[in-house]
């Protein structure tokens, strides 16, 4: 197979990159290892899009990203997968149905006539020196070689970059963001699950952990009623050992087994001890644990922690980050660091250009940034914004056989504005 642009990873970043490249006229191939698009949304059941809206003290949500992120938010609402943004503390988020998000992604990508989507496909080899000449993909024992003019790593784990020989970074085990295990409960009496019940539930779980009736992981469990009948989503952050590495399969498997066991124990405890959950049932398990951080590429520019906290402007900015640092390094819960005057983070084009590989771009949580900056940039809204920019840059790169300027990318994004 030959194409202009090859994209690895069908999460928010990869979807936006693929659609943006295809809308530029590039023959685009999107490779996704799961059977549905959506990435962490469909595989890990992440049920809110964060980072879509400007940081504001006021409670009215204002979309931050022109083009595809705004279009995707509108489609989710129009197609009934979301009822619109909600305020959570100082932040605006877009709750949604993960199956609805996956269905929206199917429709959005199907509209692009120059886009091919390969599901159930895994990248296993990259060939080329200082550029990617060919990528080898496998699906159920069938191999395919894909020659692409330009490639985009939207894998989340910098898998394309690693196989291509690019330099990558990863925080040490004690500082990596803890992964999340998310599962839905059905048959919850949501009318009895009000704010007062939440307070009682938090105290109940704390006592149970103290008395060794529940594992310590249940202590930080978060519950969110979705508004869809009796459905409530539960999110727990999983404890990790000193050698935690989310790219090691044995460790990922153990995390997922731990999450499933904790979910069963927690549900059984709630059925016996919390009236609203007397008939609760686990509706589904995630296909994958929700990894928040792993490898990051080394790019031609790097977004720093100072860039996030001060809102430093860059002349070659092509996307914004509009989420505070959400550091989940410890069991005590998230540690928040908001930027000065709630300024957005300006993400330069060079942070999306992989150093050392002439024809590789990147998008999503593995872009070139410092560890603490990644805690602000990893959310889905920002991933879609960087995906859009990387997809446009890749299409322009393929057409002209040279990397574009930031202004060219911004001009194309402006034309994608709804």
Average pLDDT metric: 95
Please tally the β strands and state the result: 20
Strand content: 15-25%
Largest sheet: 7 strands, mixed
In one word, what is the shape? globular
Uncertain runs are none
Helical run tally: 11
Task: Kindly state the percentage of residues in helix.
Answer: 25-40%
What is Rg?
Answer: 21 Å
Q: Termini, distance in Å?
A: 33 Å
- The secondary-structure class comes to alpha+beta
Topology:
Elements (H helix, E strand, L loop, with lengths): L1 E7 L3 H12 L4 E4 L8 H5 L3 E2 L18 H11 L7 E3 L2 E5 L2 H13 L4 E4 L3 E6 L6 E6 L2 E12 L5 H5 L4 E2 L10 E7 L8 H16 L11 E4 L6 E6 L11 H25 L7 E2 L13 E2 L7 H6 L6 E5 L3 E3 L7 E3 L7 E4 L11 E3 L8 H7 L2 H21 L5 H10 L3
Parallel strand pairs: 1-2, 1-9, 2-6, 9-20
Antiparallel strand pairs: 3-5, 4-5, 7-8, 8-9, 10-15, 11-13, 11-14, 12-13, 16-19, 17-18
If you had to describe this structure to a student in words, what would you say it looks like?
The structure is a single chain. This protein is globular. The model has no long low-confidence stretch (mean pLDDT 95). The chain has 11 helices and 20 strands. It has 418 residues and is of the alpha+beta class.
